[in-house]
Amino acid sequence: MSIGKMFTYPTNRETRQARPRGVITAASLLLAVLTFVFSASLALAGGNVTVTRTSNPSANAAITASAGDNDGFQTTPTNAYANDATFAVDPNSGSGDNSVATGTGADKHDFYNYGFPSIPTGSTINGISVRADIAVDSLTNAPYTAIRLSWDGGTTWTTEKQTTLTATTETTYTYGGSADTWGRAWAAPEFTNANFRVQVINGDTGSPNNRDFSLDWLPVTITFTAPWDSYSDSGRTTISDDFTTYGNTVYMKGTGYPAGTYNVVYFDAGANGGQKTQTESGISVVGDGILNSQYLLNTFPSRIGGTWHALVSDNTSFASDYNASIAAPDIYGMLGNDAFTVQTAAIPEFPGPAAGIMVAGLCFGLYYWMRKRRLAYAKA
Amino acid sequence: MPRLRIFYVLSIGILGVLAGLAIFRPLVGGHEFSAIARESVLEEKDQWIIQFDIINQEETDMSYRMVWTTGGETYTETVLVPKGTGYSHIRHVYKETVPEYKVNMTLFREGESAPFEQVTYHLK
Hints:
The longest helix of chain A has 31 residues, at 12-42. In chain A, strand 16 (260-267) and strand 17 (276-285) form a beta hairpin. Chain A has helices at 3-6, 12-42, 322-327, 352-379, and strands at 47-48, 51-55, 59-62, 88-90, 107-112, 124-136, 144-150, 161-164, 171-177, 197-203, 213-217, 220-225, 228-231, 242-243, 249-254, 260-267, 276-285, 291-296, 306-313, 334-342. In chain A, the strands form 4 sheets. In chain A, strands 1, 14, 16, 17, 19 and 20 form a 6-stranded mixed β-sheet that branches. In chain A, strands 2, 4, 6, 9, 11 and 12 form a 6-stranded antiparallel β-sheet that branches. In chain A, helix 2 (12-42) packs antiparallel against helix 4 (352-379). Chain A starts with a helix and ends with a helix. By secondary structure, chain A is of the alpha+beta class. By secondary structure, chain B is an alpha+beta fold. Helix content of chain B is 18%, strand content 50%. The radius of gyration of chain B is 22 Å and the shape is elongated. The model of chain B has no long low-confidence stretch (mean pLDDT 87). Classes of the chains: A alpha+beta, B alpha+beta.
């Protein structure tokens, strides 16, 4: 409908035609604004986010009985602590039949004291990944390296994972993964130095035992989900991942955190995954293991609505943006990550969508008032 | 042109401009500056809680570096604050960690050696 047409004094017939078109136009405008406002919530998500932490061994011991030639990586085994092209070497590995990893003919060597971070008690262990950078002198007789894990200081072991080596030069082999728990449910205390062990087993399918295995690096990566959630109430009884209203506060709570000092950092949904919005540093957790923090979402206008994150660190300052922070969880000492949705209406003093609704409402009201005046003219 | 029609067109135009400003320039800044705002110190049984906001009203996004010195220990935090908004920092200071009851906080703009804010909290 043209504006010129709208303000021409109409006949009764024109009035009947113009009214529905005007109503449709105004309703469409309003619908477009409302769609814009609510569309954001459709694509957003919240909830716990997994954390990955990687550590290197700092102690080792060859298995000296019923394990091949009973000396494991007998040459410089400490070289497996770092990725530096220096090697722990197991020359002429094995004794007799070393084709079965768990048999008595294969050399075995334990690596431990990984110094993992204090994973909160109650965390879900999503997966464990062992990286082994290995070289071998020859691929004759299909040399293999197998890995198995212990959670009780070497008393009990998982089923081993075995890989046939594919190159003589140093090659990275990965055992397990971010969603592989090696056939059992793990608990946080099982990653202490006293409990966690990695056993490396070397072997091949033929004789004589003349394969030389060289191990450069043996890091372990744990993927876990910490008990760290967002709540809508200060009593922290109702977990909420969606904050929609101006004046909302997000209340964070973590449980099972070991006694110590922590930082909690909030990232909005801005550039590079989000920008640091608030840091609460130096929070002390005592014996109850409870870590609390909170953020009033309308503290600053112009923060970006969408998926926000609250990260926990072991009193280390995070990077300014979210992507850089989660890219280096070990550097920043990350111990928790929770995502929640913050609608734009919950943030600024005068939000854009609210302005849009107001403008649309004013346009509609003005149009309606003018239509009434026009009808009054027509009647007169 | 009927007066009502002119009034209508002008109203629509003005409202459109206001809507655009509300969306794209929600903050109307006067001077361009960085500042600390809403500074507070709260004493609890075993700790003090120091809180303040960094407000960036500069022309561009700004990086800030804050250095806390508490009882001989230093804590450093770097933050990028987008223009036109702010960043909030809350620092928990436990009483047993500050025998001299004194906490220093120095705030730098990134790349500058001279601080633009230097505060000593005497907490006793």
